[in-house]
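Consider the following input, taken from an annotated entry for AAA family ATPase (Acuticoccus mangrovi).
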Amino acid sequence: MRIVLSGASGGGKSTLLAALAARGFAVVAEPGRRLVKAELAVRGTALPWVDGLAFVRRLVALAEADLDAAPAGVVFFDRGLVDAAMHLHHVAGVPIPEAARRAYRSPVFLVPPWREIYVADAARRHGFADGVAEYERLAAAYPALGYDVAILPKASVAARVDLILTTLRL
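Applying the prediction step yields:
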């Protein structure tokens, strides 16, 4: 069962993923952060602030590879193919692939924009307003692709994880 956590940048997805991993679940870290880290390590140019199109094309490929490599059983993804494909659609008008419609189990868990916990860093150089716009695109994209969406409340990590697991009956 592949479950995706999506939504606003800086909304707590990675923290939720770490908490799910601590409870013994398989997790897949956010492709965008992994790609930025790898590009910075080799002084590459496939970075959102250098060559955004190259970045997002590699992001889609990485998200597809993550799905192919996912182990059997319950796996939580911090973002994934829909997020990457939606970003490519946004920057280049490339249609969202059909595989994005069946990549994950419903519901998709969205974290809303949360200014109080938002932090920019080396991999997240965009501002809070960009994260809000991204959230709005994703909140529209997932239902358009046939997914049910569960918006997580602005609550403690433990409360959010409990809600996810209760919703999924895990």
